[in-house]
Amino acid sequence: MQRLLRKKKRRKAIKAVLFDIDGTILNCNGAGKRSLLQASEEVFGTSGTMRHVQFQGKTDPNIIKEALAEHHVQVQNIRREMDRFKSVYFEILKKNISEAEVTVYPGIFEILEELSRNDNILVGLLTGNFTEGARIKLDKHNLNRYFTFGAYGDDAETRNGLPEVARRRISEIHGMNMDFSSIYIIGDTIHDIGCAKFSGSVSVAVGTGWSDIDELKNEKPDYYFDDLKNFNDFIKILED
Ligand SMILES: [Mg+2]
């Protein structure tokens, strides 16, 4: 009995680590944006202001709604056409990603390998990408195998709704009710930090994307890294 108690005490708490994709895991070098533009033109006859819309940290459906709003494309039309839009977009994205140079940021492979070997860590996604779009981007470097669950752009109206979706998936897939304080959200924009704080999760910001570093730091993430090259420094924060 005493031995059992000691063993229990030593057991580490389970944590979840949720990664953003663009600017955090990889850089598609414009293939994602190009594909959304092309699909929008094909399905809605216009890409509206998409060329100038800030993509970072937003969900795919919100980018489309925002870009088309001023071009008299009604939100109900966008909703009605969303399934068709997605199938057109995924076909275009597949082609563009296959032709694009997709680069994975330093340290990411090492971190995913290390975390996948750790029974106390659940590795998932928290991204504004459509579910299938995320899969297509990650497939280029065979990264899908590391993620057992995710919360995606088509799961909630805004990014702030995604941590709750992720928590629900952890419960459905892994059978545990996890406290938000055990969930780490890694991303490259103020919106990633914002949704972590909104939910009471731990925010980890990385400077690998397109955000202004000072702007990121001003949001006071729990942790900040210029990049994840020194991957052991990142692994260490999960042991805190
Ligand atoms: Mg990002």
Question: How would you characterize the overall build of this protein?
Answer:
Helix 6 links the parallel strand 4 and strand 5. The protein folds into 2 domains: 161 residues, Rossmann fold (3-Layer(aba) Sandwich), CATH 3.40.50; 69 residues, Putative phosphatase, domain 2 (DNA polymerase, domain 1, Orthogonal Bundle), CATH 1.10.150.240. The strands form 2 sheets. It has a 6-stranded parallel β-sheet with strand order 5-4-1-6-7-8, with helices on both faces. The protein has a two-stranded antiparallel ribbon with strand order 2-3. Helix 4 runs parallel beside helix 6. The two termini are 28 Å apart. It contains 10 helices and 8 strands. With 240 residues, the chain is of the alpha/beta class. Bound molecules: magnesium ion. Magnesium ion binds next to loops.
> What class would the helix/strand composition place it in?
alpha/beta
CATH superfamily of the largest domain: HAD superfamily/HAD-like
List all distinct small molecules, including ions and cofactors, that are bound in this structure. Answer: magnesium ion
CA-atom Rg in angstroms: 19 Å
What is the percent of helical residues? 40-55%
- What is the second-level CATH architecture of the largest domain? 3-Layer(aba) Sandwich
Poorly predicted parts: none
CATH topology group of the largest domain: Rossmann fold
* Overall number of structural domains: 2
Mean pLDDT: 92
H-E order: HEEHHHEHEHEHEHEHEH
How many DSSP helices? 10
Number-wise, the strands total 8
From the N-terminal CA to the C-terminal CA, the straight-line distance is 28 Å
CATH class of the largest domain: Alpha Beta
Please give the order of strands in the largest beta sheet: 5-4-1-6-7-8
